[in-house]
Amino acid sequence: xxxxxxxxxxxxxxxxxxxxxxxxxxxxxxxxxxxxxxxxxxxxxxxxxxxxxxxxxxxxxxxxxxxxxxxxxxxxxxxxxxxxxxxxxxxxxxxxxxxxxxxxxxxxxxxxxxxxxxxxxxxxxxxxxxxxxxxxxxxxxxxxxxx
Length: 147
Ligand SMILES: [Zn+2]
Ligand SMILES: [Zn+2]
Fold this sequence. Notes:
147 residues; alpha+beta; Arc Repressor Mutant, subunit A; Dna Ligase, domain 1; 2 domains
């Protein structure tokens, strides 16, 4: 990691190393607030803006990307070799990842049909997760019985 950053023209400081490590250990879809909490557990002297700046740096060097799901929270996702799609529950904010192999084939076909050269794509499905839709059903059903 240190060598990698050096090739990109950035210096690895102990603080930076800690923030990077926290990010890569945390897993995917971390918000700045969540990463900040995690970093503070390890070193309480690190400020919020330092965490934020370093997250931006992780994106800049291509190791993470911003995920905006329209709920006002920017999450950060590690960039992996395998692209994945997101199922986002608009109620409990749960994020489920899924394999997009089949979708990729379809998108490639659509691009070819339009002689379009794609650089990126996003697959996002917004709605309710199994638990939240089960809860909504429970609320809906008594009303249906009454009417
Ligand atoms: Zn993701
Ligand atoms: Zn949910």
